[in-house]
Amino acid sequence: MSKIDRRLAELGIILPKPWNITIPANLAASLVRVRGKSVFVSGHVPIAADGSPAGPFGRVGAEVTPEQGQEAARLALIGILASLKAKLGDLDRIGAWLRVYGMVWGAPDFAGCPAVLNGASLAIHDVFGPEIGDHARVAIGVAATPFNAPLEIEAQLELA
Amino acid sequence: MSKIDRRLAELGIILPKPWNITIPANLAASLVRVRGKSVFVSGHVPIAADGSPAGPFGRVGAEVTPEQGQEAARLALIGILASLKAKLGDLDRIGAWLRVYGMVWGAPDFAGCPAVLNGASLAIHDVFGPEIGDHARVAIGVAATPFNAPLEIEAQLELA
Amino acid sequence: MSKIDRRLAELGIILPKPWNITIPANLAASLVRVRGKSVFVSGHVPIAADGSPAGPFGRVGAEVTPEQGQEAARLALIGILASLKAKLGDLDRIGAWLRVYGMVWGAPDFAGCPAVLNGASLAIHDVFGPEIGDHARVAIGVAATPFNAPLEIEAQLELA
Questions:
Q1: Among A146, A105, A141, which residue's Cα sits nearest to residue B137?
Q2: Crossing angle for the helix pair C66-88 and C113-133, nearest 10 degrees?
Q3: Handedness of CA B87, C96, C146, C116 (dihedral sign)
Q4: Strand ranges (DSSP E) for A36-84?
Q5: For A80-94, B67-81, C18-32, which range has the lowest pLDDT when averaged over its residues?
């Protein structure tokens, strides 16, 4: 059992099936692009256990509470882990998180994006520790997301 | 004739003049930044043959239909190819597409950004094939674009 | 005295304290992530001398004028320099700016993002010159920013 798989088990995190991008729209791009040691992760909405977009849907600060938004960020991050595992085979191959770009669909004037995105950043630190898990981040409000998800997360990493 | 130029001719794609950034606003940045093998492409709106922003203008899902949005994404991508050719001299120097970041100016609650951005992703695959053309992608709704363009596309690539 | 410090003094630019991310929200990420020669800078709002978010606050084109927006972009960039200096020790270690991603919180239909972001791009060129300072850029309108700042800037650089 790999180190990261063991850590996921300790934390009680069960990876979903990788995002099933044919539910409901086809995507003419890849969920993860690897080139040399560089890893680019496509924007991920929160994913349910079966790989479909997970609710609640709607704007943070309106249909979705900030606390639900934080959990949604955690689910999006765990969905990214599933996509990374499907692509890399073993999450221990990850040498460094570099950049996390968080896009929140918020109610008008909702300014709490950083706290919402902490749901993803804290999960990265929990699973990978402070050295591998350290990352720069953006937390911004967007006007729309695929599937009316409350948020979407993009990431860049480096292989060990 | 380079391989990619031949492929563009086969597909009937004629590159526009590179985006004329003095129409109508000066840009204190470069359209393409190359450093070592890394290539960073500035946000590009759809470009007409003369290098000026191409219509239709407005929000996808309102003034602009989703089908027109898809064509706009294709035009923005072809404009990126023009900028890349002006900078690199030869598009055969491109070794890999890595990341495409698509920003759609949509009507309120317009959630069809991924399908719109497929217009760009499919063009990349048509011209460069599945290995060089593979890329991670984000498709998000933004609140505004330069020139009221329906969308804007940023990209990162690697030289061969 | 380093070359860039001397240039900052010539230009009369005094770096603020690095962004105090505990005012008012904790951030579970780093302001700057360095890995090898790659430098990823988190989204920065305009920063005052004491490291707190600097006003004016609000939407460009509404509560904040485009000229104030341009100055806000300059302040966000100078705040990024403060974070870079705190992380790198010496700004002369910067070999190249690569990418600047500018997110403007604008009034509905505000399309003047590129001119606003020039406030940051011109400051980069003033301080680092055209070779090191050259960069690709995106200037886009977003639906919300942390602290209701008029804009936020993310960047990627490379060490010498």
A1: A146
A2: 40
A3: negative
A4: 38-44
A5: C18-32
- Write out chain B residues lying below 8 Å of A36, CB-based: 158
Residue C89 has a CB neighbour count (10 Å cut-off) of 10
Length of chain A: 160
User: How does DSSP classify residue B147?
Assistant: G
Phi, psi dihedrals of residue C145, rounded to the nearest 5° = -130, 160
Residue-wise pLDDT tens digits, B39-83: 999 999 999 999 999 999 999 999 999 999 999 999 999 999 999
Which chains, if any, share at least 3 CB pairs under 8 A with chain B? A, C
Check whether A2 has a pLDDT greater than 90: yes
In which order are the strands placed within the sheet that holds B32-35? B32-35, B38-44, B151-159, B94-105, B136-142
- Residues from chain A contacting residue B118 (CB–CB below 8 Å): 26-28
Amino acid letter at B155? A
Give the one of C35, C42, C144 whose C-beta lies nearest to A138's C-beta. C42
Q: How far, in Å, CA of B25 to CA of B10, rounded?
A: 34
Q: Indicate the residue of C40, C103, C144 with minimum beta-carbon distance to A136.
A: C40
Q: Are the beta carbons of A86 and A130 closer than 8 angstroms? A: no
State which residue of chain B sits closest to A45, comparing Cα positions.
B138
CA-based end-to-end distance of chain B: 18
CA–CA distance, A68 with C2 (Å, rounded to integer): 48
Angle between helices A113-133 and A3-10 (to 10 degrees): 140
- B38 vs B68: CA distance, rounded Å: 32
Q: Is residue A15 helix, strand or coil? A: coil
Angle (deg, nearest 10), helices A66-88 and A113-133: 40
Task: Give the SS3 label for residue B137.
Answer: strand
pTM reported for the whole predicted model: 0.96
Q: Which two tokens stand for residue B142?
A: 């933004």
Whether the Cβ atoms of residue A73 and residue A155 lie closer than 8 Å to each other = no
Half-sphere exposure of C72 (CA within 13 A, CB side): 32
Cα distance from B35 to chain A (closest Cα, Å)?
16
pLDDT band at C27; cut points 50, 70, 90: confident
Give the number of C-alpha atoms closer than 13 A to the C-alpha of residue A126, restricted to the C-beta side.
Answer: 16
CA pair distance C129, C24, nearest whole angstrom:
35
d(CA A100, CA A117): 9
